[in-house]
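seq/struct pair 1
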Amino acid sequence: VWRLEDDFEPGKVAAVTIEAPGYALAAFEAVRTTLDADPADFVARLTAGTLVRGVVVERGTGAPLAGARIRRLTPRLPFESLKHTDEAVLETWSDSAGRFVLANVPTGTMSLAVEHAEHTLACDGPFEVLGAAPIERWIELGTGATVRGRLLDGRGEPRADELVSISCLEGIERTVEHEARTDAHGNYALTGLTPGIYHIRWERHLGEATANDLLRRLELGLDQVLEHDLRPSGRATLTGVLEFEGDLPETVTVMIMPVRQTTDPVKDHWAESGRATFAQNGTFEATDLEPGTYLVVAHVSVGERGLARGSAQTEVPVEGTVDVKIRLESRQ
């Protein structure tokens, strides 16, 4: 029987973990505080510690990989949270035969993040730990997916020394970005990518302003090599004016997003494509746009914590020029 006494408010929810040598960690996500708690209302039944063990090898050759770092992930503790958590994370390293053992693993849904200096990060799982029976895993590490191509303007001319970046939207490396500079011929290559859904874009810079132009959503598989040129393919031009009662910055980023209706929740959540440009002294222009319905959005910082934002929807023709006017309204 145990008791924790502190300045707890009754009726609040807390997470409780219980550790004991030789037993799996017991984790309780939602324990409600109460006055004069009855121990019989909270009984923790510990089970013998489960072993998760396995082998890490190189994909293709089957050669064992020593020195791989293996860490336990859960739905509550994904990979991107490992750097910021105060929780004790179960981890181990593979030996010279590629073997590893995690002891006293709690029951529940989990995955394994596997990192090696010469291979791409891998996620093994998710899988269920149900009891004391050992779990066996076979994990293969490869060189990762590659996206390569050229950055071109509307005439097909290369854009040299420009930044192309890719950001993981869904996958073990969610929120992680990779970037590469184009060479004299506009070539770029983004390597060592994990499977998942990504946004790739040309990162345009004008002073301190950044615009993610030629944005495209991609889905990458295991060690896939994808050829993808970043090039506008339309013949229309969009021009516009920003209206604001206050002082506008000299340079403002303007986003130009196609309006599409889908029934796919992933496609609804992550934009399929997008363009962007800069407004200078309140006016902007975007060229080589494809026909369709677009939402044109601009926003600027106002004061210390305020924001002025405005948008306009417009139809872009197959060719020719269309004008839009965006009124920026202050929001706190």
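seq/struct pair 2
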Amino acid sequence: TEHVIFEPLWNDALIARSRSLLATKFLETDADVMVIFDDDVVWNPQDFWKIVEGARDTRSIYCGPHVTRSDKPHLASRMFHGFPVEIYATPNRRPIEIEYAATGFVAIHRDVFQAMLAGDFSDANGTHRIFECVKGGGQPFYPFFATFTLKDVAGDYHYLSEDWAFSERARQLGFKVWMDQSIILEHMGWYPF
């Protein structure tokens, strides 16, 4: 039978550190998939299990689509350049590969974290690794979700938020990032976005 370990984390002003602390704690369990969901994203129980199974099947990153809470809501995840931005959620839609997943509703397989501990990553400043930080988090942790900057083909610099930086690190190690278009999420704000 399946079991879920629920580990809420509040009151940390740095989301990259919060997510990294939870991921480090996850690696201390025997669980195979870590799910992150923001408290302002509304989802159905069947969708929770859908992203868990998606992460298990792909042994990678698997998310549901949600939009930003803004005057002009747009997809919080990033499609590949040239891919149509429109996402139409219907029960029969299949998952698609995307470039970067937003972590408002995402499942990550253990293999991704373990590979990151041994991997080398390239950003605008060269090559780096993930090291255990013994200061700056109240307990030792690995900064899996640290932000970084990329230089793209056109020579422009692109700052990656903690979630997109995580996806970039995974992709550099050969993992894929998937979005399940059959999931319909609401992002709560002034109204459900």
